[in-house]
């Protein structure tokens, strides 16, 4: 019980036990939430993911963020889109997006170098998985643009793409 | 008897001890603030797709008498077209068409579950998508290829931990290897 004394010298008590009850329940919930999601993702502005029934969790992989205005790789904008959400003609080459391809090529080389270091440290105990890319795409983006992005990734030697979705709450 | 009186320390309320909970409240409020800022309220999932040139082979040995089941799903804005050949369908193949609506997606799922039941070792499906479809529409189709919440009209692959009083559940994805046929090298 918390208490204070007013001007007349009388004690005024405040019952804070319900507050402690609420705090303890809230902390339990947040602690469970904190421990159940090992990888947290901050969604970029302008991204609204579609809902899905899939239950596969997110991996810690390089991310390509696609909204209606630009394409971002590893927190850096790479390509700007026009008003219709399409890539500008000067950025296209052979069906792929040239600046995106260059950036993804660098990312793949970094990943390969890190894997080789890890493999050396573990004496060859780690098997390399196929190079994968996570795509965080706004739900209104057309498949035409997604196809161009995947083609750019394919030419940069990424063969598997993980499409990020928002899990539906049942 | 001496006239001394012993002074006794007396509490304001004999038998009651005050407990200062204010530091407790301070810690709780700080902890709540920290956890609220780091809490994740949107759960993220992933659909994995592959591009054609690295498509892994199925579990069927290459010299098997039973030809491999080839599934091709063509998705456009109004229709879903499933082309199946080989496996239990036969070399001539069969085509199935479904409208691109929620009931159509359920029918597609049921047909895929039927094909999976007849060809349990097959895991691959090739998907071709119309350029004008949105990402949200594509994900709905991928959900139907994997798991659907709609009840099955035909029995599909069953889980090993079936509860007797509940509907049998699928063990996992119908065709986990989704290959995008439009992404050619």
Topology:
The complex is a heterodimer of chains A (170) and B (185).
Chain A lengths: L1 E4 L5 E4 L2 H20 L14 E2 L10 E4 L3 E4 L2 E5 L11 E2 L2 E2 H24 L10 E6 L5 H13 L4 E8 L3
Parallel strand pairs in A: 3-10, 4-9, 9-10
Antiparallel strand pairs in A: 1-2, 4-5, 5-6, 7-8
Helix pairs in contact in A: 2-3
Chain B lengths: L21 H17 L5 E7 L19 E6 L3 E8 L3 E10 L2 H17 L5 E6 L5 H11 L31 E4 L5
Parallel strand pairs in B: 1-6, 2-5, 5-6
Antiparallel strand pairs in B: 2-3, 3-4
Helix pairs in contact in B: 2-3
Can you offer a commentary on this structure?
The complex is a heterodimer of chains A (170) and B (185). Chain A has 170 residues and is an alpha/beta fold. Helices cover 34% and strands 24% of the residues of chain A. Chain A has helices at 17-36, 98-121, 143-155; strands spanning 2-5, 11-14, 51-52, 63-66, 70-73, 76-80, 92-93, 96-97, 132-137, 160-167. Chain A is elongated, with a radius of gyration of 25 Å. The model of chain A has no long low-confidence stretch (mean pLDDT 81). The radius of gyration of chain B is 31 Å and the shape is elongated. Mean pLDDT of chain B is 74; it is low at 5-11 and 150-171. Chain B is built from 3 helices and 6 strands. Chain B has 185 residues and is of the alpha/beta class. In chain B, strand 3 and strand 4 form a beta hairpin. Strand 10 (160-167) of chain A pairs antiparallel with strand 1 (44-50) of chain B, so a sheet runs across the interface.
């Amino acid at each position: 019980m918390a208490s204070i004394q007013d001007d007349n010298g009388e004690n005024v008590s405040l019952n804070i036990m319900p507050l402690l009850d609420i705090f303890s329940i809230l902390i339990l919930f947040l602690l469970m939430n904190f421990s159940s999601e090992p990888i947290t993702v901050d969604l970029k502005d302008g991204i609204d993911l579609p809902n899905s029934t899939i239950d596969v969790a997110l991996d810690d992989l390089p991310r390509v963020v696609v909204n209606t205005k630009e394409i971002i790789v590893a927190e850096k904008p790479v390509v700007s889109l026009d008003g219709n959400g399409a890539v500008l003609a000067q950025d296209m080459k052979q069906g792929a997006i040239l600046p995106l391809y260059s950036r993804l090529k660098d990312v793949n080389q970094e990943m390969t170098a890190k894997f080789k270091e890890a493999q050396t440290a573990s004496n060859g105990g780690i098997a390399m998985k196929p190079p994968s890319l996570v795509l965080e795409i706004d739900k209104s983006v057309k498949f035409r643009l997604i196809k161009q992005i995947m083609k750019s990734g394919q030419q940069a030697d990424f063969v598997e793409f993980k499409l990020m979705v928002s899990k539906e709450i049942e | 008897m001496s006239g001394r009186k012993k002074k006794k320390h007396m509490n304001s309320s004999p038998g009651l001890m005050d407990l200062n909970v204010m530091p407790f409240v301070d810690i709780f409020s700080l902890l709540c603030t920290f956890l609220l800022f780091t809490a994740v309220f949107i759960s993220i999932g992933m659909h994995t797709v592959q591009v054609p040139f690295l498509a892994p082979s199925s579990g069927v040995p290459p010299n098997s008498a039973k030809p491999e089941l080839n599934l091709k799903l063509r998705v456009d804005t109004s229709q879903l077209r499933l082309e199946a050949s080989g496996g239990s369908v036969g070399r001539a193949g069969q085509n199935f068409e479904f409208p691109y609506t929620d009931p159509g997606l359920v029918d597609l799922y049921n047909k895929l579950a039927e094909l999976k039941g007849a060809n349990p070792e097959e895991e691959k499906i090739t998907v071709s998508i119309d350029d004008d479809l949105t990402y949200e529409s594509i994900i709905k189709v991928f959900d139907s290829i994997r798991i659907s919440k709609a009840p099955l009209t035909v029995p599909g692959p069953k889980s090993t931990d079936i509860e007797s009083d509940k509907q049998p559940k699928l063990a996992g994805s119908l065709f986990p290897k989704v290959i995008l046929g439009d992404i050619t090298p």
